[in-house]
Amino acid sequence: MGGRVTRVFRNFNVENRARREISKEKPTPAPRHPTARPDAMADNPEIKEEVLRKDDRFLTLLKDVYVESRDPPVRVKDGGGEHLPCKQEEKRLTKLGHLEALDVKKVPIGKISIVEALTLLNNHKLQPQIWTAEKIAAEYSLELKEVNSLLEFFIPFTVQKFPKETKKAIKSHKPKQLT
Q1: In sequence order, what DSSP letters do the residues of 76-114 get, joined into one string?
Q2: What is the pLDDT of residues 149-159, one digit of tens each?
Q3: In angstroms, rounded to a whole number, what is the distance separating the alpha carbons of residues 132 and 27?
Q4: Are 34 and 40 in contact (CB under 8 A)?
Q5: Are 89 and 109 in contact (CB under 8 A)?
Q6: Whole-number pLDDT of residue 79
Q7: Is the pLDDT of residue 16 over 70?
Q8: Using CA atoms, how far apart are residues 152 and 143, in angstroms rounded to an integer?
Q9: How confident is the model at residue 137 (pLDDT cuts 50, 70, 90)?
């Protein structure tokens, strides 16, 4: 209800109010101070002469100035090296076999590459008696707890083929012709 009332007052006599605002004379800007104009300094020869004139007293004082500076000793922050590795990480070569061209060559100990992860998950899925969590942990230099979590929560996809007779065929239909 309140929106209707405000709309009525807002639209009341809009054209006359707009015409009145447009017909008002624009205010003239305030005059600028004469020194604020950059062209006034360029035209004045006294200012140019003052700028270009050399003062002998200041030159002798400037020649007597000798500046000797030394850099302060560099302080090494104790907490600043958290993001830098404190020691070189040991790396191992990957065990990829025929998929070697698809992945990285060296991986830090305790980690595996994507192709290795898919390979070990598939090996465990196909032969769980041979590829146990202990064997995978020893083979890929991983912790047993991490391998158990990996085998529990990550399951590789299963591809299933349906026989042709059970497959429902999509009947093709002719599109309607526009006349």
Answers
A1: PPSGGGGSS-SSPPPEEE---GGGGGGS-SEEETT---H
A2: 999 888 877 77
A3: 88
A4: yes
A5: yes
A6: 56
A7: yes
A8: 14
A9: very high
Mean pLDDT over all residues of the chain? 77
In this prediction the pTM is 0.38
The pLDDT value recorded for residue 148 is 93
Q: How far, CA to CA in Å, does 173 sit from each of 85, 112, 166, 170, 179?
A: 65, 50, 21, 9, 18
pLDDT at 68: 85
| Cα gap 7→3, rounded to integer Å | 6
Residue 154: name the closest of 117, 123, 129 by CA.
Answer: 117
- Give which of 58, 40, 59, 56 is closest to 48, Cα–Cα: 40
What is residue 34's three-state secondary structure? helix
Which residue from 115, 153, 108 is spatially nearest to 123, judged by alpha carbons?
115
Alpha-carbon distance values, 106 to 52, 71, 109 (Å): 68, 43, 9
Name the residue type at position 144.
Answer: L
Cβ density class 140-173: b for 16+ within 10 Å, e for less: bebeeebbeebbeeeeeeeeeeeeeeeeeeeeee
Report the pLDDT averaged over residues 82-105.
Answer: 61
Report the alpha-carbon distance of residue 142 to residue 104 in Å, rounded. Answer: 18
